[in-house]
Write a structure and sequence with these properties.
Elements lengths: L1 H17 L11 H10 L1 E7 L6 H22 L1 E3 L2 E2 H7 L1 H13 L1 E8 L4 E9 L8 H9 L26 E5 L12 E3 L5 E3 L6 H7 L3 E3 L2 H10 L5 E5 L2 E3 L3 E3 L2 H14 L7 E4 L2
Parallel strand pairs: 6-10, 6-13, 7-12, 9-13
Antiparallel strand pairs: 1-5, 2-3, 4-5, 7-8, 11-12
Helix pairs in contact: 1-3, 4-5, 5-6, 6-7
Length: 278
């Protein structure tokens, strides 16, 4: 019986996603995006109407919670000009990822009020996780898609330039005071807008576990988290400017420092990167 109920809910949500009457999802604002990327998950509570049996109330609350999760998921920014929802319209891989998204959602609590006969169901979707159930795990192929994100134009400095070695086992980018938006695909560019860091630099398992970077509003918090990852000597770089809200541009000399330290420590592949914002 429980399996049939889950199948019914799943089919219902798939109809919501792929029907012509798909509800438009707006971009998440800065505060919403920061909360999600800082905590590492989307969490919502769905509520049913009153005067329903326990079975119907819990089922209704679950559907409402999953629908709210889906709306927030679609509102996540991939790049400055694209959300997950826009990507769904442009790339079949994005549509395919929605199935993984729904299966990755986990119930984090439920309650049935016997007096008013309504239910509340908490649902959570991990942005990043060591397990299989995370947004980054499901959308990794999307982040590699040339139709949405160009992986060309990556900077490969000459051997002469890369001789200037620096020490460092991780990276902190200070973006405070700039119009920056946390996204699924925040990248670091040099002044010529060559790509210094992005999803293609990160091992797939580490991208699923950590995401593209950590986000915090404090340099000390960033250092503390990196220390918990066994990183004791972070390279700290001040952002030069922001492009399309999601791409961080750093000075050419700073870009060389990042490449030089990474040549020694290989920390970009491990996603040992933090953005300090606002």
């Amino acid at each position: 019986m429980k399996r049939n109920i889950n199948q019914q809910i799943y089919l219902f949500l798939m109809l919501i996603i792929f029907s012509c009457s798909l509800v438009h999802a707006d971009y998440l604002n800065y505060d919403q995006a920061y909360e999600i990327f800082n905590k590492g998950y989307i969490e919502v509570t769905g509520t049913s109407e009153e005067n329903q049996s326990r079975y119907r109330a819990l089922r209704s609350a679950t559907v409402n919670a999953q629908r709210d999760l889906l709306e927030q998921f679609k509102g996540l920014t991939i790049t400055g000009s694209s959300t997950v929802e826009i990507g769904m319209l442009e790339e079949d891989k994005v549509k395919t990822s929605v199935e993984g998204f729904l299966r990755g959602a986990q119930k984090c609590g439920e309650r049935y009020d016997t007096t008013h006969r309504y239910a509340e169901v908490c649902m959570r979707l991990n942005l990043r996780s060591k397990g299989q159930k995370s947004i980054y795990k499901n959308i990794f192929p999307i982040l590699q898609s040339e139709k949405i994100i160009s992986s060309d134009n990556q900077w490969k400095p000459s051997n002469k330039n890369s001789l200037h070695q620096k020490n460092g086992d991780s990276l902190i980018i200070d973006i405070k005071g700039q119009n920056f938006m946390p996204a699924l695909n925040n990248r670091i560019l040099n002044e010529k807008e060559n790509i210094i860091y992005g999803p293609s630099h990160v091992i797939a398992s580490k991208l699923a576990e950590k995401g593209i970077a950590g986000f915090t509003n404090s340099l000390d918090k960033a250092k503390a988290q990196l220390k918990s990852w066994a990183c004791k000597n972070p390279l700290i770089i001040k952002a030069y400017k922001i492009k399309n809200k999601t791409d961080v541009i750093i000075r050419q000399d700073d870009a060389l420092k990042v490449v030089s330290t990474d040549q020694k420590s290989n920390y970009l592949a491990q996603a040992n990167v933090f953005f300090v914002i606002r």
